[in-house]
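Title: Comparing notes on inverse folding

I've been comparing how different people in this forum approach sequence design from structure. To keep things fair, I'm posting one structure and asking everyone to reply with a full sequence. Here's the target:
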C-alpha cells in the first residue's frame, strides 16, 4: 500500500492545507494516526514542512488543523 502515516497534528494539518487528501484516521489507544495516500508526494511535502522550505497561508493551515481536530473528536 502506498500510504503516508503521521501522528503529528501540525504535520498532518500542513499536508491537508497543501492539498493532500486525508484517507482516514486510525486510533491506537490515545494516539491518532493520520493516513494520507501517495507516500512519496507526502514525504516531499512533509520534508518541506520540517525544514522550513515552504510557505502556506496561515488561514488555510488553521482551518486544516480545526478540520483534523473536528474529525478526531467527532469519532469518539
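Reply #1:
Here's my take.
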Amino acid at each position: 500500500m502506498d500510504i503516508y502515516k503521521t501522528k503529528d497534528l501540525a504535520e498532518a494539518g500542513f499536508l491537508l492545507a497543501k492539498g493532500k487528501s486525508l484517507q482516514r484516521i486510525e486510533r491506537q489507544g490515545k494516539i491518532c494516526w493520520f493516513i494520507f495516500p501517495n507516500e512519496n508526494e507526502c514525504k516531499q511535502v512533509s520534508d518541506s514542512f520540517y525544514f522550513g522550505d515552504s510557505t502556506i497561508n496561515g488561514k488555510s493551515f488553521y482551518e486544516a488543523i480545526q478540520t483534523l481536530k473536528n474529525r478526531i473528536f467527532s469519532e469518539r
